[in-house]
Amino acid sequence: MSKSLVVITGASSGIGEATAKMLSAQGHPLLLLARRVDRLTALGLPNTMCRQVDVTDGPAFSAAIEEAENQFGPVDCLVNNAGMMLLGLAHEQDPAEWKTMFDVNVMGLLNGIHAVLAKMKARQGGTVINISSIAGRKTFPNHAAYCGTKFAVHAITENIREEVADDNVRFITIAPGAVDTELLSHTTSDAIKAGYEEWKDGMGGVIAPQDIANAINYAYQQPQHLCIREIVLAATRQQP
């Protein structure tokens, strides 16, 4: 392949889907991972391997990457995009929802890093792009556990970036504000969802998945000696 392999998690919709389409158009072979594999294959992208993988299953994650590398060569970029947002008040929310978010948003991300990082260090090159959130920089009502997961993403990304900088491996955080994706649909409280939608309407609409894909592409396509450590982006009228 003339371009290097890119792995994208949560690629069946939203940011992951938009990023897959963009990088495929540029000629990158892809490994797309999601729970809804039918939606991955429906994209019809060339030189693309689609696998039904839950990112919380470390061995399955690693096995899919090994299979893709056997076909397309080493992973040059991992986009850790899979995530869950289950909003609720700390005294009311089902603790099972907290566990789900930490399992997917934190452990799933770490599983991906663990699957690719040793080889990137050995090759002295590679890029890991972790999709966080403005909720990884500041807190919001009803977001306590979700913010906790995204603050963790910020910390993990920057910590490992410092560890592997001398190995010429880049770690990048992308922190979007409100985006028009399926993320809010995971929340079980109708009242919270209604309030969130009112907030989105109040800013005149939110940014599109393509906007985030553009940011991911910009950061990735920089020369390897340049690391865009963090990109924060949101609708101009979004407050906070």
TrEMBL record:
GO molecular function: oxidoreductase activity, acting on the CH-OH group of donors, NAD or NADP as acceptor
Signal peptide interval: none
InterPro entries xrefs: KR_dom (IPR057326), NAD(P)-bd_dom_sf (IPR036291), Sc_DH/Rdtase_CS (IPR020904), SDR_fam (IPR002347)
Listed Pfam families: adh_short (PF00106)
PROSITE patterns listed in its UniProt record: ADH_SHORT (PS00061)
Ketoreductase domain sequence ranges: 4-163
UniProt KW Ion transport keyword: no
Keyword tags: Oxidoreductase
Gene3D superfamilies: NAD(P)-binding Rossmann-like Domain
Coiled coil: none
PANTHER family linked: DEHYDROGENASE/REDUCTASE SDR FAMILY MEMBER 11, DEHYDROGENASE_REDUCTASE SDR FAMILY MEMBER 11
Family named by the database record: Belongs to the short-chain dehydrogenases/reductases (SDR) family.
Protein name from the UniProt record: Oxidoreductase
Origin species: Photobacterium lutimaris
